[in-house]
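User: I'm new to structure prediction. If I give you an amino acid sequence, what do you actually give back? Let's try with this one:
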Amino acid sequence: CEDLEECDEEPLRHQTVDIPPIKPVVIEHVQHVRKCKKCGTLVYAPLPDDIKRTIFGPGVLSVVGILTGMLNTSKRKALAVMTEVFHVPMSLGGLSNCEAKTAEVLEEPYHEALDNVRRQKVAHPDETSWPRGNLEKGWLWVFCCTMAAVFMVHANRSQEAARKLIGDFAGTLVSDRYNAYNFYELIRHIC
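Assistant: Good question. You get back a string of structure tokens that encode the predicted 3D arrangement of the chain. For your 191 residues, that looks like this:
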């Protein structure tokens, strides 16, 4: 058609989604220096406590945590994503330090959630295979209730692991028939 006129019809829309180039934000903290008049020692202004020994910020820690914790990506592959996709210069040691820092920050809320599940009237444990690193087999355990779910990676699918996760739980345990839960002497429902 060549002879066109305006009309009340809605136009068609086409959208393209893309990710813009990622450039990390570097925040530089300057420590001014003074020299002692008597002995010549250089004295640098201290960094604030929340900055000391921190190379990577919460955004970097979050992405590393998602890659290696949630997605179970190998350290080398996670490092490749951090350097190639996010352009964050990092070594394997730096990546491991990010994991350690994240684990440290999450330890208290993890134990609060675990204690919460253990105090419930009804809770559900389960486990599934979960690779640990490139060659080691492991197990991902879960202990959950209606308000929370707590996960634990353990080397074994065993009663030892089940006891570690369930702890002092005294409510109704709802589980499958796996014999690792047979130690539980209170009320147990089989699903």
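You can read the tokens as a compact description of the fold. Here is one thing that stands out. The longest strand covers residues 122-129.
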